[in-house]
Design goal:
CATH superfamily: Transcriptional coactivator/pterin dehydratase
Largest sheet: 4 strands, antiparallel
CATH topology: Gyrase A, domain 2
Strand order of the largest sheet: 1-2-4-3
CATH architecture: 2-Layer Sandwich
Radius of gyration: 13 Å
Oligomer: single chain
Number of helices: 3
Shape: globular
Length: about 100
């Protein structure tokens, strides 16, 4: 079953309970800050394993101790339930 694009109201409602995430340029966005590069890279490694298991991959970049993440579902043409599930998993990894 293909992912379904969520409407603006669904996205706004879900964002209320998703700590640290915002809507930026039509994507879910969050910056994670770590103690150092090794901790940031470790987070990315753990998140990559989760993303691969979900077959849903983030747009992200890392500069020293910061990892910036954007989530969207290209096949759905916008934000889907998959993006919120991955964001929630990333929040748990960060905690």
């Amino acid at each position: 079953m293909a992912a379904k694009k969520l409407d603006d109201a669904e996205i706004a409602n879900r964002l209320e309970s998703l700590e640290g995430w915002s809507l930026q340029d039509g994507k879910l966005h969050r910056s994670f800050r770590f103690e150092d590069f090794v901790a940031a890279f470790g987070f990315m490694t753990s998140a990559a394993l989760v993303a691969e298991a979900m077959n849903h991959h983030p747009e992200w970049c890392n500069v020293y101790h910061t990892v910036k993440v954007d989530l969207t579902t290209h096949d759905a043409g916008g934000i889907s339930e998959l993006d919120f599930r991955l964001a929630e998993r990333m929040n748990r990894l960060y905690a």
